[in-house]
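REQUEST ID: PR-0412
SUBMITTED BY: lab tech R.K.
PRIORITY: routine
TASK: structure prediction, single protein chain
INPUT:
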Amino acid sequence: MADVKDAIEEMIEESYLLGLSEEEILADFSRFIDTCYTVIQDNVKSREALSRLAENLAREKTSTRSADQSTDLGKVAAKDAQRACAEKAARRKRMVLKAIADYDPHLVRLINEQRFQVDLQEEVARPKFKVRQGHDWERYGQLLLQAGCITVIALILFLIYLRF
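STATUS: complete
OUTPUT:
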């Protein structure tokens, strides 16, 4: 059952990565490794486990860079290269998460929370209109001034009417 879950999560990750260019896939993988390293550094207390996990993450990061630089893109069409890069990145992400889960499954949940939280914050666009908080006293002042002008005009008209 766990293999099916891993396969599904890998396919979901791969489908996300297929929408990115190769450079974006590599940047996403690099951010993933950095997020893993940050969570591990913050939550792992054992120096031995921390150094072992950090070493594995560093190895993954450098092996991905060197493997991607050594591929011959002239032989493979651009779409196929992108698909291969996405498949490889998704597979490596699952392998990294599996290795971390062997140490502590709680870390995987923390990594996923931080990783997807970052993605959501980056995607949020600022509204193009001004969001007002609290009372808009300037608007109230303008309304009061308009009401006062109308009252004065009405009073003048009423006084003119009474004299004639």
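NOTES: Confidence is low (pLDDT under 50) at residues 70-75.
REVIEWED BY: pending
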